[in-house]
Amino acid sequence: MIARATTRVFVAGHRGMVGSALVRHLQALGYEDILTATRSELDLTDQAAVQAFFRRHPIDQVYLAAAKVGGIHANNTYPADFIHDNLLIQANVIGAAHRAGVRKLLFLGSSCIYPKLAPQPMREDALLTGTLEATNEPYAIAKIAGIKLCESYNRQHGRDYRSVMPTNLYGPHDNYHPDNSHVIPALLRRFHEAVQGGEPEVAVWGSGRPMREFLHVDDMASACVHVMELDEATWRAATQPMLSHVNVGTGQDCTIRELAETVARVTGFEGRVVFDASKPDGTPRKLLDVSRLRGLGWEASIGLDEGLRDAYAWFRANAQQARAA
Questions:
Q1: Is the CB of residue 147 less than 8 Å from the CB of residue 108?
Q2: Considering the chain, what is the average pLDDT of its residues?
Q3: Key word NADP present in the record (predicted)?
Q4: Which end is more exposed in the chain, N or C (fewer Cβ atoms within 10 Å of the end residue's Cβ)?
Q5: pLDDT at 324 over 70
Q6: Strand locations in 252-306, DSSP E?
Q7: 204-239 b/e (C-beta count within 10 Å ≥ 16 → b)
């Protein structure tokens, strides 16, 4: 049984969408010793600074939620930044945790690690069985490296470093940048501004046919802590032979057209929704097989309509901050 009140937890990336949800969830569960650091206080791409941080602060557990993230446009525009920064962050934090004697760490990956044409729903053992989606290949390779880094420390040094692969996430503190955001915040912002401006139509990238799965970030935080708190024997039994990773999702997906129509309803947009098929669709379908995590006792609880309303409420309450992102 974990002594939550006295366990010192470092949440890397606590100001991001996932990191902030993790802090909220940990606090709600009674974790009282949560360590965080802003980017100005600790540059995770600076190896010496990260090692010094771990030497200064005794840490029991690490949640590695820090990452450089973005949607299709950002991945296409800044591929070198995405692979370079994420490789540095992962290597620095995981390596420093090991050197400091931290036994437990949770690495957050992404469902883009799986091949573009992987059988659906995608199982954990689909990793490295085919060609990646070209639009986010550099980011995916960085995330695959993070998984393998955790695996390697487990094999060589007996660490208990675990990895979770979330589906598409959304919720409070998401990135609403007009060019570099993911699909849900991009659509929420676009439809909101169309309502405010009285616009007759909203254009959505792609054909609308690709299918995607979406998970509210509060569910993601719940899943992360659930995985971290599993006893080692249970985790090892579920992730043999590589002591690797588990998928985190809802097990349900929808088309981008259905998503756009739901966002229109949530934001009160009553005009036309048109699709720009000249823009890239990305992977045709991305649905995770979440049977392994269900077998470990966790399931998502926030439906898409409910989750979108929560995300939109946060956006409206924080419109100035979100629009400046």
A1: no
A2: 94
A3: yes
A4: N
A5: no
A6: 254-255, 272-276, 285-286
A7: bbbbbebbbbbbbbbbbbbbbbbbbbbeeeebeebb
Confirm whether residue 99 is marked as ligand binding: no
Predicted confidence (pLDDT) at residue 323 exceeds the cutoff of 60: no
In this structure, how many other beta carbons lie within 10 angstroms of the beta carbon of residue 122? 25
Residue 318's pLDDT is: 92
| pTM (predicted TM-score) | 0.93
Residue 139 known to be catalytic = yes
Strands 211-212 and 254-255, bridge-based pairing: antiparallel
Classified by CATH at the fold level, domain 4-323 comes out as Rossmann fold (3.40.50)
Asked whether residue 108 is marked as a ligand-binding residue, the answer is: yes
Cβ pair 168, 215 in contact under 8 A: yes
**H helix runs in 158-231, sequence order:** 183-197, 217-229
- Does residue 222 have a known ligand-binding role? no
Q: Is 16 one of the annotated binding-site residues?
A: yes
d(CA 320, CA 325) in angstroms, rounded, equals 9
Q: Has 242 been labeled as part of a binding site? A: no
Out of 139, 153, 161, 176, the active site residue is: 139
**Beta strand 61-64 with 104-108: parallel, antiparallel or unpaired?**
parallel
User: Is 162 a known ligand-binding residue?
Assistant: no
The string of pLDDT tens digits covering residues 203-248 is 998 999 999 999 999 999 999 999 999 999 999 999 887 768 999 9
Tokens, residue 281 = 């669709």
Q: Provide Rg for the chain, Cα atoms.
A: 19
